[in-house]
Amino acid sequence: MLTWLAELSPFFSPLNIFRYITFRTGGATATAMLFVFLFGPAIISLLRVRQGKGQPIREDGPQSHLLTKRGTPTMGGLMIMAGVLVSTLLWANLANPYVWIVLFVTVGFGAIGFYDDYLKVTKQSHKGFSGKSRLAIEAVIAAVACIAISYVEAPGLAHKLALPFSKDLIFNLGWFYVIFAGFVIVGAGNAVNITDGLDGLAIVPVMIAAGTFGFIAYLAGNAIFANYLQIHFVPGTGELAVICGALIGAGIGFLWFNAPPAQIFMGDTGSLALGGLLGTIAVATKHEIVLAIVGGLFVLEIMSVIIQVASFKLTGKRVFKMAPIHHHFEQLGWTEPQVVIRFWIIAVVLALVGLSTLKLR
Q1: Is residue 81 part of a domain?
Q2: Which amino acid positions bind Mg(2+), per UniProt (predicted)?
Q3: What is the pLDDT of residues 296-346, one digit of tens each?
């Protein structure tokens, strides 16, 4: 919204700074962070009163969680989403269709997560929204977003899949691309959702991924940088760096309250929304495969659940002591801070590997 101030630059030249994505990304980060810092305590107090017993804790999980996490309110994703939305609407160029597509998925997935959290809290049960129904709605939202992206993109890029570490390899998948890209968005949302199981475990890797894709979006949306790095130039995607900046700022504010011992949990409200946001940006920038690298920690988490379930159904045996895999390491004797910090380190390493795909071509 503040981009209109740049139109006044002929009368007051310093206002020209509002044209620059880098400046507005920094402004979005600071705004979102301050928003969550200022309104976070009130939101936490309100949710604690409304929820009473807070998020139900798994009885079959680590026994320490029953003592340290019981009574903690959930739906903290509302804080993050509010910070991202307010900051994005303030600092992004609202004439850019990519901005609205990403916000559409973020709010849509967040609404699904909110309903799921609501059912869990009111029923004090882990059985929230029906899994099949939830996935079906997510798929519809993702499909709408992917179709919109296909229409917005330049004709030479629509329905095409680019491969990392390659200058020229790009495959025209036709309308099957909508199915593939929708899978990426839905998969990203649920992978982050699975990862959100320990204090601070999900939000920091999400911020690392957001920083990485903010950088990628800025480069992919700039013809000069894209040509130099020999990545595909996607006009308009540079504006998505502002949303990534807002997510980082809101994430920092949330981490202040989510640091051990957490005052609030992100819940499905936040994890689904943030995963969907990252997935949509990856699709828009033609870096879907790179998301699997940068978000490799999320992939590991969701694959551990898939492997555990498949192994138990087929053989009656479990591969891990407990799934998702962060609980496996807890059962091995790692403390919660050890698991969280070591997983953060893995997320940083994977982000660096993902960034290397920009130059190793």
Answers
A1: yes
A2: 193, 268
A3: 999 999 999 999 999 999 898 899 999 899 999 988 999 999 999 999 999
- Buried b / exposed e over 159-175, threshold 16 CB at 10 Å, is bbbbbbeeeeeeeeeee
Token reading at 158: 């629509």
Tally of domains in the chain: 1
Of 138, 156, 167, 182, the residue nearest 283 (C-alpha): 182
Question: Annotation-wise, does 193 bind a ligand?
Answer: yes
Q: 243: closest CA among 207, 272, 269?
A: 207
Q: What is the rounded CA–CA span in Å between residue 284 and residue 269?
A: 23
**Residue 207 falls within a domain, yes or no?**
yes
What gap in Å lies between CA 88 and CA 100, rounded to an integer?
10
Question: For residue 323, is it within any domain?
Answer: no
Whether 161 is in a domain gets the answer: yes
Instruction: Report the candidate in 194, 52, 199, 36 with the shortest Cα–Cα distance to residue 123.
Output: 52
Q: What is the pLDDT of residues 238-266, one digit of tens each?
A: 999 999 999 999 999 999 999 888 899 99
